[in-house]
Amino acid sequence: MTGEAGQATPARRLELVTDPADGLGAALVAGTRAREVDGDLRASRQSFERAYQLAERAGDVQAMALAVLGLAGLWVSERRTVTGAVLLESRLEHVLSRLDPHSSLALRIRTRLAGEADYVRGGHEAILAELDAARAASDPELLAEALSLAHHCLLGPEHVQLRRELAVELVKVSFRTRRRSDLLMGLLWQTVDAYSAGDPHAGRYLGELRDQLEQQNHLAVAFVVSAIDVMLAIRAGRLDDAESLAQACAASGAAAGDIDHEWWSGAQLVTIRWYQGRLAELLPVLRDREHSPDLSAVDNSAVAALAVAAAQGGDLRTAASSLGVLRGSDLVGLPRSSSWLGTMNGIVETAALLGDADVAARAYELLRPYAGLPMVGSLSITCFGSVQHALGVASVTSGHLDQAIDHLQAAVQHNLALAHWPAVVASRRRLAQAYQHRGQPGDAEAARGELETAASEAAALGLPVPDKGAREPSGQVAECHRAGRKWRLAWRDRSLLMEDSIGMTHLAVLVANPRQEILAAELAAGLSALGAGGEGGSAYPVLDQAAITEYRNRLKRLDAELQREPGDAEARAERDWLVAQLASAAGFGGRVRSFPDQGERARVAVGKAIRRALARITEADPVLGDHLRQTVHTGVRCSYWPG
């Protein structure tokens, strides 16, 4: 059949162009069965590609239209590469130009073009206009396709309720199309939307969908169900099981020919390692994955995961660069895709690790309207717990501690309702840190209570047990301790020995007292002044009593050695060094050394000494040096302020 398409009814369209003995007809039938009945997207693409080429050679426009609609696939944006997407678009436009513009096939192609364009732009205006046109038409297949395409383009958190309404409408239309794939898609969307909304009865929708798949499998839909199973295992705290299920999920997606099978399993592994405290292990994979052409044009979750992993692994340049990519001119420009909440959670976490209060504050503004939602990613394939958690972390970073505590208390309760146990532990830990930072009466006891509960819950799940005395996430704060005549600096998995200097002594005091401002004059006056109690009566020890005792015992041994061998230059140098250290710690005769014009002269001297020390540290270890350069602040008041 050649020429423009007529007004054949939907049920007869395929009959008009198919003949069991005709290669074109057989290819169309095979492609339709693979997509709608079997859910085999790879076989479907192969059959429809053959059908399109045969139809093009035959000049059969109707067959070309059916083939190119089949090539567009079950989902939106199945063609991710530039060449693949442009080829599909050009074919759709070419066929559309040869069809009767009022025909149902033309409407279906315009609807597909609108959906593909809106999805890439992160919009929905065009597809909703086509949906209205489809509702006014008398073609249920057109309406079913328009409903599913519109659902794809409305996956942001602001459209949860509208999506649920579209899913119900799709189920209704499926009884008119009599296509089982429409029913499955409607049930699938209902399930995904229920989990995205935090519906406590989401499992009921999933159960009904499973029942349908048990009657007859559909590979593409079953792949999404297997991904939801991974998410549920993560929520239950069965992280080892979740990792095994993620591998099975990837195999299921590969069997279905779904382009997302690699990144979905990757995103699930990111979530698992996140809660295991091992995200930095994925840095090499995430660096490669960031630029994969298989990623959706509106999915920024891989960049966010890279930012967090880099920050946790000490690669601050990559973390800051990735955060800059996500931030752009304004975070509001990020597409509101199905991965938006997870991406924003990564942005908040990176901002916390880098101490970027501005980014944290902006992220808070954008997330605040969705406080009651879970941070579910894509088609409910993974979950980072309540949005309240991200709001709490952002509030801590921006210095709004009362607000942070309110959000984190709510996060604990919401995560309990979600039965997301790793997220419960994470929110309790953050809540304890917020209490510790605020330091009001009763906060220390409240922090201990949250940490004790978190430790008990973590132990039961086999998760890393929170340190009951920790003020920061594990590895986030540097440490600086004496190591003989040197200083040992440690941060995350990095460790460095540094020669002693005045600047290193000052740094040791600041690092030992994170988030506390210490007068430069106190640092310059020596440790006895600090030990006497600075502002607020705090003490800032570097040489504790055990170290002082050890140094004094070593002095006695050196004195004995020098009596036997007065010319031992090495022993003499070590003795002089120990005497100098003990003098700086206590002052000769127990008196505090004076420092004339303490304010300004101390600021200058201490600042220069610390900067010299930072320069030497950066030369020896650029990553550790970058961390300290970004977190150590000098001036009249000095501080170490880790993210």
Describe how the helices and strands are arranged.
Layout: H1 10-17, H2 23-38, H3 41-58, H4 61-72, H5 82-98, H6 104-121, H7 125-136, H8 140-152, H9 160-177, H10 180-196, H11 202-215, H12 219-235, H13 239-256, H14 261-276, H15 283-289, H16 301-313, H17 316-327, H18 340-354, H19 357-367, E1 374-377, E2 382-386, H20 387-397, H21 401-418, H22 421-438, H23 443-461, E3 479-483, E4 486-491, E5 494-499, H24 502-512, E6 518-519, H25 520-525, H26 527-531, H27 545-564, H28 569-586, H29 598-620, H30 622-631, E7 632-633, E8 637-640
Antiparallel strand pairs: 1-2, 3-4, 4-5, 6-8, 7-8
Helix pairs in contact: 2-3, 2-4, 3-4, 4-5, 4-6, 5-6, 6-7, 6-8, 7-8, 8-9, 8-10, 9-10, 10-11, 12-13, 12-14, 13-14, 15-16, 16-17, 16-18, 17-18, 18-19, 18-20, 19-20, 20-21, 20-22, 21-22, 22-23, 24-29, 27-28, 29-30
Report what the structure shows.
The chain is mainly α and 643 residues long. 67% of the residues lie in helices and 5% in strands. The strands form 3 sheets. It has a 3-stranded antiparallel β-sheet, covered by helices on one side. It is elongated, with a radius of gyration of 32 Å. The protein starts with 9 loop residues before the first helix and ends with a strand. 50% of the residues are buried.
Q: What composes the largest sheet? A: 3 strands, antiparallel
In terms of DSSP E residues, the strand content is 5-15%
The percent of residues in helical segments reads 55-70%
Q: Structural class, from secondary structure content?
A: mainly alpha
Strand order of the largest sheet: 3-4-5
| Whole-number mean pLDDT | 86
Shape: elongated
- CA-based gyration radius: 32 Å
Count of runs of 4 or more consecutive helical residues? 30
End-to-end distance:
68 Å
Report the count of strand segments.
8
